[in-house]
Amino acid sequence: MVMPPSNPNFPKNLQIHPSNPRSSRYTNANQDLDEEKFGPEAQELAIRKYGIAGRVWEAAYAMTLYIQPPGNLAFDPPMIDASRHADRVVIIELGSGAGLVAFSIAKILKPGRDHLIVTDLPEVCPLLEDNLRSIKEEVEATIPEKDAVIIRPLSWGNQDDAAFIASQFFGQPNNDGRFGALTHIICSDLVYFPELLAPLLRSLLHLTSPPFCHPSKTGSGYCGPSILISYKIRSLSKETAFWSAFGLWFEFYPVLVKDNDEGDWQRFGANFDDTTFLFTAHRRPESWSWVVPTTDSDLLAGVGSKGTDTKKYDDTFENLLLMGVE
After folding, report:
1. Which of 24, 121, 149, 311 has the CB geometry, 3.0–4.6 Å to 301, for a possible disulfide?
2. DSSP letters along 84-141, please?
3. Is 51 in contact with 88 (CB distance < 8 Å)?
């Protein structure tokens, strides 16, 4: 299989196989998995055509369980706060790949009010169109404007891609645009290749800045969209750089889970067969006045954060590992 070296979905010596929902105490995580679109055979075909984007990566199963939990599980925080259940939900997913997580999100949308923008590289969008066609038609069947589920190209770190989406759906402080403000950003199993860590962080900074949201002080200190990141550790030495830089611009915490049939709160993913996290994050309010560096090396080195040009790092993720937060 010969592909252009510039295509990140076909790294050199690519050898991957389809995944299955993890075996853990949460075995019912994907009891309604659409095998035709996301099962092993479908993944095998998609991998041949779309490379790593065709595989459902393991942390996606954790994210779908969080999005559509069974009745016996409670999460802190939940994806949608109960006090805001009547508010419009506007979600962007980065690196959507085969679309399993987007498929799950679409099921909880309220047609005519909520919106989901599903994104990936331009060459992956046809896969998303195929896999999300049925759920998109189902969600939009009763509404006049067919924009509950939208697929758009967005390459990480690409300001033009972000600006194009903003121009279509988001507005300025006195003009909310079609969708109003962005409420959630979803990232499922995106922290892996070292060369993509800075572009991913840059896209998160794009999406937590105007016109996607409009900074304002709130009682909780949080403003702007909630970021949800599911993450499976694969090569800690290569991936830590992302968290060290991410924590300078964003506050983040592990999502907790409680089985109502058994008792205590614990870190979601603690009982999985591998080291998996689900984080919730918000942009640090003071960071909107900081200058984002133009080079990827400076961004990962912490230049610009805290309003200075010195290199620095955040130790939130390191401390979570050391404490073994359960």
Report:
1. 311
2. GTTS--EEEEES-TT-HHHHHHHHT--TTT-EEEEEE-GGGHHHHHHHHHHHHHHHHT
3. no
